[in-house]
Amino acid sequence: MPVIPIAGSERFGQSEAPLDPDESFGDLALHRVDAQAIAGVDALTYEVIRHRLVAVTDDMGEAIKRMSGSVVVTDCNDFGAAIMDELGETVQVGLYNMQLGSSLDMAGRWTLRNRSVSPGIHPGDQFLLNDPWIGGGLHQNDVTVLAPLFYQGQLFCWTGAVAHQVDLGGVSPGSWSVDGRDVFWESVPIPPVTIVERGRLRADTEDMYLRRSRVPKLVGLDLRAKIGANNVAHERLTTLIDKYGPDTVKAVMKRMMDDAETRLRAKLRMLPEGEWSAVAHQDGGRADDRQVHKIVVRMTKRSDRLHFDFTGTDPQVEGIINCTLAGLRGGILPILLTMLCPDIPWAPGGIYRCVDITSEPGTINNCTFPAGIGKASVNSAWATQNAVSETVAEMLATHPELSRSATSVCSGTWDLTLLAGVDQRGGGFATMLCDAMAGGLGAKVDGDGVDTGGVNCIPMGRTADVEINEFSFPMLYLWRREEVDSGGPGRYRGGVGGSSCFIPYDSPAQGVHLVVSANGKALPQASGLAGGYPAATQWDVLIRDSSVRRRLAEGVIPSRIEDLGGHTDTVPPHLETDLGADDVYFTHWQGGGGLGDPLLREPEAVARDVALGKVSPQAAERVYGVRLADQAGSDADAEETERLRHHLRQERARLT
Amino acid sequence: MAYVIGIDIGGTFTDAFVADQHGRLAAAKTPSTPPDFADGFLNAIDELARELDIPAGRLLGETDYIVHGTTSTLNSLVTGDVARVGFLTTRGHADSISIMNLEGRYAGLGSDAIQHMARTAKPSALVPRHLIKEINERIDYKGAVVVPLDEDGVRQAVRDLLADGAEAIAVSLLWSFRNAAHERRIRELIHAEAPGLYVALSSEVSPRIREYSRSVTTIMNTQVGPRLDAYLRPLQATLRERGLTGSLLVMQGSGGCVSADNAPAHAVTTIGSVLSGGVIGCTRMAEALHSGNVISTDMGGTTFLVGLVVDGAPARTSNTVLNQYTISTPMVDVHTIGAGGGAIAWVDPGGNLRVGPRSAGARPGPACYGEGGVEPTVTDADLVLGIINPDNFLGGRKKLDVTLARKTIAERLAKPLGLSVDEAAAAVYEIQNAQTADLVRKVVVNSGQDPRDFSLYAFGGAGPMHCASYARDLGARQVIVPIGATAAVFSAYGLATSDIVLTAERSQPAEMPVDPARLTEAFESLETELATRLAEQGLTFQTVHYEREADLRYTMQLAEVSTLVPNGSLDAAAVAGVGAEFQRRYDELYGEGTGFPDAGLQLITCRVRATGTLAVRPELPDHLPGDGTPIPSGTRNVLLDITVGVQPTAIYDYQALGAGHQISGPAIVEAPTTTVALPPGTHGVVDRLGNLVLTFAPAGSSGLARAGSATSGASEKESV
Amino acid sequence: MDLDLNLTVGPGGCVDCRHCGAQVGTSTAAPLDKAVRTQRPPSEAGPGMHADPARFTDRPIVLRQVFCPNCLVLLHTEIVPADEPCYRQWSLR
Prior knowledge:
Structural class of chain A: alpha+beta
Strand order of the largest sheet of chain C: 1-2-3
Number of strands of chain A: 20
Protein name (chain A): Hydantoinase B/oxoprolinase family protein
Mean pLDDT of chain A: 94
Strand order of the largest sheet of chain A: 2-1-5-4-3-6-7
Low-confidence stretches of chain A: none
Distance between the termini of chain C: 13 Å
Protein name (chain B): Hydantoinase/oxoprolinase family protein
Oligomer: heterotrimer
Helix content of chain A: 25-40%
Strand content of chain A: 15-25%
InterPro entries (chain B): ACX-like_C (IPR049517), ATPase_NBD (IPR043129), Hydant_A_N (IPR008040), Hydantoinase_A (IPR002821), Oxoprolinase-like (IPR045079)
Largest sheet of chain A: 7 strands, antiparallel
Pfam family, one (chain B): Hydantoinase_A
CATH class of the domain at 27-172 and 187-263 in chain A: Alpha Beta
Largest sheet of chain C: 3 strands, antiparallel
Number of helices of chain A: 15
Radius of gyration of chain C: 15 Å
């Protein structure tokens, strides 16, 4: 059944334009400052308050991490924290999941416009939402708690905390149903509702929210973590305002955004005028879909502005991979921050002022209700990020100094492995394996990408130790390792990704339930730059009825899929199944793209890569044109390499 | 006569402190002598003997023990001058130390560095790939053998490693802390191939769950053990030749020491050897002054260190980060929060004034050193403001050039910001202090405490110049500047007053409530292990006591919290009590109701700390009482409060101050090794031990708050 | 001005190869119009291309590459559906 538009749903979609500074919102009094006050802040006061505001977002992040009961939050840093001004413009985002700091402004604006009269916005109120058409998170699992801060009766500013929740209902555990066709297969979005009313948690709203989850207590704990983070921030901000006065603190907030804007504009003026286009592909919009879906972007740089035009992107699909405008912005902001603003304050409110976006509603990365968005964050938002990454990096490549902040595409997607069932202690469990956080980073203009270095949108990700996973869940690893040839070949190699291979272990139920979802199997997703090759394709393999238990008993730990016996299945992009007692699951996540012609890579560097297991002897020969003095690597045969490279240069250009 | 000596070797100076049982003290500060730090050690002994006016041989002959804080271990790791180590691990998991849980790309970096993602990288490999061998063997989470040890494979791997030049071998297998049989058998097999080879087992060095940091800890221990041995053995021999009959002890990161003979086998515990002396000094001073809770701030020329003493005991951590690697060894929790006096002030491309995180380091150092530094630093600002006397820096050992400081501040800060040189310097001073307050607050709050319940101790060359400002901003009760007998060598004082502290731990992850008998057995076996090690120290202890703790967590939550466990045989009620204590401590740390008890509790790691109190504990002598009102040695123009501007300020010579003397800010107290700034609104009194104790006039009169109003810019300029 | 590791803006606004100096494009508005283009099966990209794309999609997938017409240094690589145009383009004003 095709997706049918829902009359009345337009109210929840919105543009990304800031509010008119003079707009009024019921009886709500907003604290505002004028340009003169902003200009009047002295250098000392500015820096002291700015530093303290950054410290406040750190405090919020700490508060969330300590209270959360979910490894997705505590280990993967899949959460965001931010301070917004009175109109919802983001003053400062924390160093967490930058996707989740990218659209809190949209959520703030919508709440101002739609909640100031009924139920009203009061001191001590906090609003909960998980509606990606409105903003905040990218898919329904990202639940936002927005808190207006009042000072002397005026709405002074907002703080927002958003984190990925393990399960909020829907057809499948984890709320990722691989068969989903529209949003009604998923957790139904909640627009902003009052969760804390004048300082008191509303029991009715909380019940309405938690009732939908398979793990309500855990989600309830994370709800308190976010409320707690807002409370910590409000306490610190109020102390700050008491000390310096509301006008001064607000003036600093505005100046932080102005400063980011001014500096980004200055940087853009250093770069040439031009257009850069890119494309990102996703194979399979849900289980059994054999289509390849594309996101196209044309970035135009004129003077001190960037324009991202997504015209030509495929229409939204009947599946789970679409994202809303919030997801599209979540694909842009992390790249702007890490590549263009590493030395500029992370004040999205100012940074967005340098950016225009053109995107047609109803497309895969700007979908309309009720398109399925269950995997938006790691599908179309992530793919948008890949395409944007290419255009921004190519633009930066033209500048000798600014190019140092650019990389090829990092870890082309998120390799979702969700396990659920009965653990070794007989309790129920559901968890997302975070091993794939150790993706490879893209190559740089002057060096290789970081091996198993992370993902682009989360600067500080983590994976749990094998021992922690084996203690917590009914599984036993045969290996967790870096994978040969997974980094995109190039003059500078992309960072390698890795793989994990495990068996169900010690569960009273024998096996475990498995949800797998990762694109990039038909064609790679982490593209290279300047001729560099893309990173390896995503590769997941399920081995049924293996001989692994016999092999272990014989004293051997298999290291290759070929040694596992049984029946080997290459897993499609989306699959939900059970893993039986004799089954083995192998998951190989992506590396980063390469940069430059691999035939120009130093032969010694290739030989060293072979010795370290980062590049296979076959790839050394066929892709890098390096003949090794021996199969173990470490030395290249200079003369033979020269000859081989000459030959490959002709052959690959079809001139032989 | 029985002396105790503390020798603290830093990168630049070697500090020494000696005391006898009758309150006689002496201190010495001599240059360190890299690369052979032992020379500086011996020079410092000679210097102490001179101060006491006795021959060095007699001093050594009458010394009960010397406690040594050494950078040897740390230097080896930082410079990479380590033993060539081979590494054996479980098949399939050799890459764990290169994947580094991916946190190795950013661990220990500041947010400025992390934001520049393309420029972050992992550190160089801990062990070259060809020196890592995977072994067929596997133990599961319960300690059961899944795959038996492939002994032939081990023999072959060992032979290959030896042929490849391995000088020592580290062994870290999955789940070895649950079942150490495979690791122990591997050691036997190694010693059959290479008798006497230095071998470290993860089940002994760091028997704690989480293979990444356990392996890193074991490898680092193996890398530095042979080097530490090569440093201590000849040093000890020389000391014996020169007459030492007592013991040479080495300070550990845990804040307690260990005998030099015993140290190399547990070398990784001596990382942090030089960091913990200051915190122990604060702990001892706090005991003497009944301070209870102390924030220890050590601001030197190149670093700013913060530690905590809570209820009289130093705050500890079970992990630390070195070279972006995570090490799991219990240590006193010392945070590096900044670059000290060398922090560079700069104007960013947005025209904003920034301080740090870059540092001018020891070389070239601040511009005023005249050693080629061209960027303005906090020290340059302090000099321009008149806080530092250019002729009295480091007791006059280093002459500072005010002209160079003014020049760089004028060019690089004042001009682009449109400020006068004084204004720019004052802004640097204020920003440095406010940021310090932010960072110290974070350390205190993250440990579940409130800064208002603490006294703040400030030492290090630069700390006392800034402490009044940042302590007031934090809301600390009072500031204590220890400038009595211990002034220049506060860390060395800490060393001389330390105890033997040994720690043993083992992960035994299990659901609560755990079996009381098994838990008792676990602690008793750790205590037996410690009793043996205490006996190996070859010392007589006044008292020995054991302190048990267990790391617990809520099943779904990340944070493990160390929880006190009663001594003796445990019953079900005691286990329940441990659970309750954990929940209380969790609430205290993270806030009421933040725990998730519905998920259940897990006990992860058991740990015992044995403290052997040494026979001699130096007492600090009373400071001479002062008569009447102290008389300033002079007056100079100093800017201590940006809202007041430059004003004639009384300068006091510390050496003329007696106990009970009172001073009101604005004032400067000059001691041989540091300078104490008392901004307006600060009250100082010299206590009975000669410390300067600062308190503040009630809130509301803070200079910074008034400077902060957006409209006061114009009047400020007039007043400066 | 250098455009990346391989290309530079030559005299008269044309785009030249940094390795051999040959002209690759007549202007920065058409920077690669003189380059050599090839299309090959994706497996030619090396062992990192794990499975046959036909397992997952019915659309043909190809490896496209662009080279300097003279020294044949590799300027661009992408693996995309064969029925799509090359979306990865750039031009300077």
